[in-house]
Amino acid sequence: MTTHLQIPESVRVRHRQSREGRTWLGRLPGLVAEALKQWRLTLDLPVGELPWHGHTAMVIPVLTAHGAAAALKVSFPCEETLLEPVALQLWGGRGAVQLLHSDSSMGAMVLERLDNTRSLMDLPIDEAIARWGGLLRDLSIRPDARPEWQQFPEVAATAERYCDELPQRWDEAGEPFPRWLLEAALEVCQTRGSVARRSNNDVLIHTDLHYLNALARRGSNSYLAIDPQALVGDPEYAVAPCLWNRLRDLPQRGAEAALRARAAELSAAAGLDAELAVAWSILREVENALSYLESPGHARDAQRSLWVASTLAAKTLPGLPSAHELDVLY
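Structure (tokenized):
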């Protein structure tokens, strides 16, 4: 049943660097075959065509036993992928792709099939922001009595941990950016960490809701979120990915002011506190910058994160490339 299924080379390259990754790659064809059998699916992938894929998963178009179009997703086992079906189940199709089946032992899910050729990346930026805001409103459900909620890490706990981690990582990296930017991030940690947490603001957050992670329904103009990396906390935490993407849509002149205006527009579209959205975005981009600097070959990504973080803090660091030069599509 899987004789013409090929594993994309980028998936192989990413995961063959570790023993766990090599083990998963070896199991992947068998996992796909097992999922096809368990849920009575048939491949709907033309011979020679590669499955869709991202950093941690492979997505294969399939047909259900009733002939309906669906998608089989098999993910590398890690915390964020193990929690994905839990989040999708809680959303129940409200703002997110519908989960049809899942099996955590295989890291496999069957999802409704969306139109992978149409995302919010393709829309004019003003329309994309408006639709993104509507999606985030739908996704921002509040915790209830269902036990699944207890599985999700809390943003406040992450911020609390960063209070100790970020200064040490900044020091070990050789103080790669000014202390004032580090302190701007730490201020967010101190005011939004566990001690200062306002749980009445908590929702389920899709923390990676950038424009490519919102796909159109087939034959429709509505969009749904995919690939959630879910946490519980302030919904404003979700704004950052839309600030480090589509930088090329900013004007050549005045890009800095335009980025800050975009943060306000995204916040207004989703009914969020714009000041808090900026604060969380500064923290996320400072942490991203340190992560990139700790990984060889990611200097350009670190520059983008530092440009976004410092620009949001209204003091763009000198010596960085322009926003258009830093633009990266995920």
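The chain has ten helices and eleven strands. The mean pLDDT is 93.
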